[in-house]
Amino acid sequence: MGTSSNPPKSLAELRSRRWFADAGMRGFAHRQRMQQMGVRRQDVMERPVVAVINTWSDLSPCHAHLRERAESVKRGVLLAGGYPLELPALSLGEVMVKPTTMLYRNFLAMEVEELLRSLPVDGAVLLAGCDKTTPGTLMGAISMDIPVLFCAAGPMLNDRRVEAGQTRRIGAGTHTRLFWDEKQAGRIGDAEWIALEAKMTRSPGTCNTMGTASTMTSIVEALGLALPGSTAIPAMDAAHPRMATDCGERIVQMIWEDLTPSRLLTRGSFLNAAAVQMALGGSTNAAVHLIALARRAGVALTLDDLDAMGRKVPVLANLFPSGDRLMEDFWYAGGLPALMQRIAGQLSLGEMTVTGRTLGENIAGAKVLDDEVIRPLARPVSADGALAVLRGNLAPEGAVMKLSAADPKFFRHRGRALVFDSPAEMNARCADPALDVDEDTVLVLRHAGPVGAPGMPEWGGLPIPKKLLARGVRDMVRLSDARMSGTHYGSCILHASPEAAVGGPLALLRSGDLIELDVAARRLDMLVDAAELARRRAAWQAPPRAVSRGYTRLYQEHVTQAHEGCDFDFLQGNAPSPEPAIY
Ligand code: FES
Questions:
Q1: Which of the listed CATH numbers 3.40.50.970, 3.40.50.1820, 3.30.2350.10, 3.50.30.80 matches domain 406-543?
Q2: CATH code assigned to 11-157+206-361
Q3: pLDDT digit string (tens) for 1-18?
Q4: According to the 3-state scheme, what is the secondary structure of 281-336?
Q5: Atom of ligand 1 nearest to the CA of 211
Q6: Atom of ligand 1 nearest to the CA of 93
Q7: What is the pTM of this model?
């Protein structure tokens, strides 16, 4: 359980004073340079200095409004007696960044940690939300351990489409793939396809499905690092800039209270986050990010904890891709405080939060306003749970499967493997109408993990071969060491660990081998005898790495495996780094 009972900080104890109150030549230079920008001496001498870390850029559509929101945060800081400074950070727009934003999550984490360490700031508001920007900014802030408050970008507005006389909700990401399959099958023509491109994403804001963005921002709220109810506010709702102002006001108070992440993050708060992930039917990506965040905080959390939570907490949020509603509906239905009330029996309600109150106090009185969006425990969207962790001779350290977005007919399955060694090979062969494949085949993509790809891209939702699409097949068992977009659906087994590129058993699999999946027993095996596997192991050679320089080389040499959170080995743990010397 966390605690907020620190004696209040005095002005003399503020971290920024080391820069601005210094009596020597350095202090003179720091104040002089602030005054060069028109800032008054007393603004930085007599107030806490707040960093507004902004992940806005012209290539991050989900964060297109964050420049304006930064102004709202700054207003809150000023109203509360602080001084705000906006600091841009790597923006990581999910769709634009290649080969994958995951490659750069740790880069952003390092950037945020070092921005906060190297500059004269006492606390920070993190403006982020698009997939990796949430764990990236938070991992860095947790490691720096100064007061920090997360201000979520908020989801984009709903879209709708009339299908067979019925108005249906259209979700970003989820329907892009669904409509692509329909186009491949010849059921959507070119004109409609172009029209969909223009209308499906109606406003700035993060994906409106329960994809990785909404999963991660909800998890941050459950961890106690965002204001209660803040993360589901639609980006374009007038409540959003008001919430951003609240964030600015509250961070100043948190600085005086010295309410740092290390005083908020406990095993209990991480289990709360896991419970919320399950009740939301959240993205499988959260399994990687949550473990990475926990390791930064020095909290023990494993895939087994997530599997155990998945067995206890049913999916209650009826949101794409597990359900059929969108984040705007979730907001109208009461948002996360209402959902957490529904699963209060599985939460550690005494955990301290950024409000200075406990989680239980924050959600007291929250009510579900629409039982179709946030279902009662007696009528879940899926009783099978959001996430299962599978182990066996194909994934000795674990693989994950999002049960709520899969077809239950595959929960016990045996099929022959069809193995692809690259996405280029996979795409070319899946487009071949003569491909030797049927609906029982298990499609496998390897060398797509943290080291192999590199960066563990979202290639794990392998395409259904064109030949089967034409027959009406829309789901089949797929296996990879990659991740999958949280907006995606299907019977996909992901994050097989260790990955093929470092000699994980996926590397030994051959097309034609039988694969057996048993979700109830949490097993995933290739039915190949031990002697044959030993022969293949002896003949295996590590694939050559294409990149030999720069950040990607650093990444490949230091990234940990999926079950360890894919953080860099030298960034894990909560050993303090020294404050920079000022001479
Ligand atoms: Fe930014 Fe989905 S692309 S949240």
A1: 3.50.30.80
A2: 3.40.50.2300
A3: 445 566 789 999 999 999
A4: CCCCHHHHHHHHHHHHCCCCCCHHHHHHHHHHCCECECECCCCCECHHHHHHCCHH
A5: 2
A6: 1
A7: 0.96
